[in-house]
Specification:
Length: 447
């Protein structure tokens, strides 16, 4: 049997969700009933789009693209569940560009794409602009951290597609600088992340301002109850397409952990970088202050190190990401501001210097590598007190992480050596526990 991508069937009140079962194009097996993986040409795309895909080095559609593109071109509302790094941006950008045509549509935007972070807004805009090769389609990104006047001026000159964060979109709507009367398409990208960071009121306010007669595409790594409520209220008979693998993380990512004392983590990181010599790596810390401290220390020992977190000015964050994408930065120290949606193809290693606060965030962190079928490796530093956190991660991804060690490096402090025993010494007598108190037991991490 070939692997199958199952598009989940469920029923949301007042919205009928259709069931589709599609052969996984990535499967290497073939049966008489399952033909070869579809090509972009077989998806019914125009010659202009096929030429732009060749120019962008898109050779064949990913499973997410092969599933969503035909349904979106047909005008169907789609709720797509898929992890990051599977080609979601092109899956919604291609149908929008195809339906808009090759000419500019006028001064008002025809499509609005909402994303959770500034970095993702820039990335999605650049991807759409690349796929719009050979067209006159104009795409603008709007997000906080940059002067709003510049963005108002760009919108005044006309934009067919607007990509933005919910907060900045609300600001522009309140100033009447962004008008949604002509919208035909609305996309919610990384919808679960937008809800996680408190954008739900802004999203609903924006959707209420959009024309009722529109097509809505919602992309999310998970379909939690909040996502279902959005679909019920703002989508019309959406098809739910689930491209999530059985395991939360993909087979192309090797996952390891080190047991290490807190005070030895920095030296372990230095040794690990020396051993692995990564092509590019992201080192995740929990806090902005911890990111600053680690960057100050590591940049003195290792070349091509930079950092990114939410307290930096947007211009600085943009500059760091440009350098990272260009390969000028080899090791990026970051908070979870880049845990989702950032697509840099050469990331070979992920290091969880600090375990994330949420097990789901672990999945998104390691998803920065192993993208689009490439191989990658992830290492997590686990202190003796964090065994239960490691166990929760393993239960979530249904995989045991492999324990690793650096040859000749002691990651955990050893106990003081016992006094040398005499040959004729009596064995040490065990002290009984005080009355009414159970003897202490040592606990081991386990599933």
């Amino acid at each position: 049997m070939p692997d199958l991508w199952l598009y989940h069937s469920c029923r949301i009140p007042q919205n009928e969700i259709r069931l589709i079962l599609v052969t996984n194009p990535a499967s290497s097996e073939e049966t008489p009933d399952s033909g070869p993986a579809p090509t972009f040409a077989q998806l019914g795309l125009s010659d202009v789009m096929l030429a732009s895909l060749v120019a962008a080095s898109y050779h064949e559609p990913s499973p997410v693209q092969a599933g969503i593109i035909p349904r979106a071109i047909a005008g169907v509302d789609v709720l797509g569940q898929a992890r990051t790094g599977t080609g979601k941006t092109a899956a919604f950008a291609i149908p929008i560009l195809e339906r808009l045509g090759t000419e500019s549509c006028g001064p008002l935007p025809q499509a609005l794409v909402l994303v959770p972070t500034r970095e993702l807004a820039v990335q999605v805009r650049d991807e759409i602009s690349k796929l719009a090769h050979g067209r006159k389609t104009r795409c603008q990104a709007v997000y906080g951290g940059k002067p709003i006047r510049q963005q108002i001026d760009r919108l005044g000159r006309g934009a067919d597609i607007v990509v933005g964060t919910p907060g900045r979109v609300i600001d522009l709507l309140s100033r009447s600088a962004l008008k949604l009367e002509k919208l035909e398409f609305v996309v919610l990208d990384e919808a679960d992340r937008m809800l996680d960071i408190g954008f739900r009121p802004d999203i609903e306010k924006i959707l209420r301002r959009c024309p009722q007669k529109r097509q809505t595409l919602l992309l999310s790594a998970t379909v939690a109850p909040g996502i279902e409520r959005l679909a019920k209220r703002y989508m019309v008979d959406p098809e739910i397409m689930d491209f999530s693998p059985k395991n939360k993380t993909v087979d192309t990512i090797e996952q390891h952990y080190f047991s290490v004392d807190e005070e030895r983590k920095y030296e372990l990181l230095v040794r690990l970088i020396q051993r692995e010599d990564p092509e590019q790596a992201i080192v995740f810390c929990r806090t902005k202050r911890g990111t600053d401290r680690l960057h100050n220390k590591l940049s003195k020992k290792t070349p091509s190190v930079d950092l990114i977190h939410g307290d930096m000015q947007q211009s600085a964050r943009d500059r760091v990401m440009r350098k990272f994408r260009a390969g000028d930065v080899k090791i990026l120290i970051a908070t979870d501001v880049v845990g989702r949606g950032i697509d840099v193809s050469n990331i070979s290693h992920i290091v969880n210097y600090d375990l994330p606060q949420s097990s789901d965030d672990y999945v998104h962190r390691v998803g920065r590598t192993g993208r689009m079928g490439r191989e990658g490796v992830a290492y997590s530093f686990v202190t003796p007190e964090q065994g239960i956190e490691l166990t929760r991660i393993e239960m979530l991804i249904n995989t045991l992480l492999k324990r690793d060690e650096i040859e000749g490096f002691q990651t955990v402090a050893t106990a003081a050596p016992p006094q040398e025993a005499r040959a004729d010494a009596e064995p040490a007598e065990k002290k009984p526990a005080p009355p009414g108190q159970r003897p202490r037991r040592r606990h081991r991490r386990g599933l």
